[in-house]
Amino acid sequence: MSRPAMLLVDHDEASRLQLKERIAAICPPGMEVLVARSAEEGLGILYSLREQHRTIELVIAMQGMPGIPGGRFLEIVNAQFAGVGKILLSGKPSLDEAIYAINNAGLDKYIPTPWDPEDVKFTITALLRQREMKLLNEKLLSDLQVRNQQLTSALGNLEQARHDLEGSYIQTVESLAIALEAKDRYTAGHSQRVAKFARLIARSLGMPQGEVDIVGQVALLHDIGKIGMLDKILNKPANLTPEEREAIKTHPVVGAQILAPVATFSKHVEGIKHHHEMFDGTGYPGRLKGTDIPLSARIVCLADAFDAMTSTRPYRVGLPLEFAIQEMQKMSGRQFCPDCVEAFVRVLQSTAGAGELAASAPAAPPVPRATDEGEGQASHDDAEPRVQLPTGT
Ligand SMILES: [Fe+2]
User: Fold this and answer.
1) Which residues, by Cβ under 5 Å, contact ligand 1, an ion?
2) Gap between the Cα atoms of 252 and 275, Å rounded
3) How far is the CA of 307 from the centre of ligand 1 (A)?
4) Residues 11 and 93 in one domain
5) What pLDDT, on a 0 to 100 scale, did the predictor assign at position 378?
6) Which tens digits make up the pLDDT trace of 113-122?
7) Which of 133, 178, 238, 295 has the most CB atoms around it within 10 Å of its CB?
8) pTM for this one?
9) CA 221 – ligand 1 centroid, Å
């Protein structure tokens, strides 16, 4: 590493040697003290130091030099060597001279004669210390900016990781929900179809894309609370006992309890908990009424019922679209939110809606199970409208 340097410019040889000796005695180790007899020689030394990429700490100049005086010399130094400390020594001190030099040469100190050697020593020591502190501050500031950039980058990575983790968690739970209903071929694909219908309703209501996505996820997970229920109840081929029916009715609350501890699902929990509420206040678990029912729950309630009506179950065939529309309109304001019904019917009656519905329909009706032919075969699905549905063949 190249040595830092200090330059003393004084035309008087005796004075120059005496000053150099004093300055060298107080300089930090490693500092080289250079001397010049004139401003021109001093500038030559400074240009040479700069070419060698050496740090110039301080330039001390005598005012009364022949040729270019010390004040003017330091003005040139100030213009061409930014950040260099500057001291002007004057044998014939004047206030005007001091003010001019301070304003135009960026002077750090003006020392008139007769100067006290201790004062010169103190000034140089203080200036060097001040410069050292300034450099240290600049380095600390630079380090701080680097750390800030690193921290910002780390926070960005952390946010991305959180986002990825949320995405994979949602996918895991969605897969779980799909796997849950895939155990029974008659309900397989139900949640995915409900999610598709719920998205159609949400879009038709003019909801923003972010909320449409949440409604779709609520629909996909709406029956996740059934995960802890016994298959013998869920797939019971006969009517449920009152106790079994009450047990099944806990699934919206159980689903909400499963997802509530996970921050990712904070916007989903209420929709899942209330997807069996009726618009007239006769549903469960909260007997909420009208718009007290979360919008996502009202949408999923309708989409759930629509899929229950139009898909073929062991105990009946799916209803035609026109009949399902009539039933939804009949139950509008009672079981279903009128705004949701209107929005859904509008999209179902459009060309695009018909296409979406056709794409969601099973390729062929499933074959009824042998056990379904037994007595009392019935729906365990509260999503279906309260109207009497035609029985299966
Ligand atoms: Fe449900």
Assistant:
1) 223
2) 7
3) 12
4) yes
5) 44
6) 777 777 777 8
7) 295
8) 0.58
9) 9
